[in-house]
Design a protein that fits this description.
Blueprint (H helix, E strand, L loop, with lengths): L9 E6 L1 H9 L13 E3 L6 H13 L3 E7 H6 L1 H5 L7 E5 L12 H9 L5
Length: 120
């Protein structure tokens, strides 16, 4: 399995401008040869289909290992996130500066709790 994942070297980011900008300043930004970025800044004007399509695109890319998504954006596409069950790329929900992290909404944490028989 490790051999299959050796090309997954990127971290993708989806979230508000401040969160994505911080991650880009940390060095995760990348544009491939087709001018496809590994990040999406989501604001009030970003259409829901664009958010959903970008998430699905990131899950299909073979160069992305982790998708960081702010919980606020994750809530907007929760129905898509709940249907995603692949190990790679791994989806991690992160807090944003405007909205605190709520563990009860985190899909990954829910799966872990289900495996270990904790929580609801």
């Amino acid at each position: 399995m490790a051999q299959l994942q050796k090309d997954r070297t990127l971290i993708a980011a989806m979230g508000d401008e401040d969160s994505v900008t911080g991650l880009l300043l940390a060095g995760i930004g990348h544009m491939d040869s087709k001018q496809k970025a590994n990040f999406l800044v989501v604001d009030a004007k970003t259409p829901l289909p664009t958010i959903e399509a970008t998430f699905l695109e990131y899950t299909q890319r073979k160069d992305i290992a982790i998708i960081l998504i702010t919980q606020q954006v994750a809530d907007e596409i929760r129905h898509v996130l709940d249907d995603y069950h692949q190990a790679f790329p791994t989806v991690l929900e992160i807090p944003s500066k405007d909205k605190p992290y709520d563990p009860s909404k985190d899909s990954v944490l829910k799966r872990v709790q289900k495996i270990f028989g904790e929580g609801s």
